[in-house]
Amino acid sequence: MLVLTRKVGESIQIGDVITLKVVAVEGDQIKLGIDAPKDVDVHRSEIYEQIIEANKQASNSKVKDFLENLKKE
Length: 73
Description:
By secondary structure, this protein is of the alpha+beta class. It has one helix at about 45-70; strands spanning about 10-15, 20-25, 30-35. The chain has two domains: about 1-40, no CATH class; about 45-73. The longest helix is centred in the C-terminal third of the chain and has 28 residues, at about 45-70. The N and C termini lie far apart (about 50 Å). Keywords: Bacterial flagellum biogenesis, Cytoplasm, Repressor, RNA-binding, Translation regulation.
């Protein structure tokens, strides 16, 4: 993991198209601005994990439904 120190107003560039900017520091919270193309999904990690889990469950249920339909035929 790369660890960088930035001050309010300073940025980090990721590749050619993603910029992270420190917008504010308030107590123990840091506010980040993220500039990324519309085709790049940006989520908080806990939300991303929920999306992954929901996709796994949906995929598993589709496979189960498919197998059940095969058994009926």
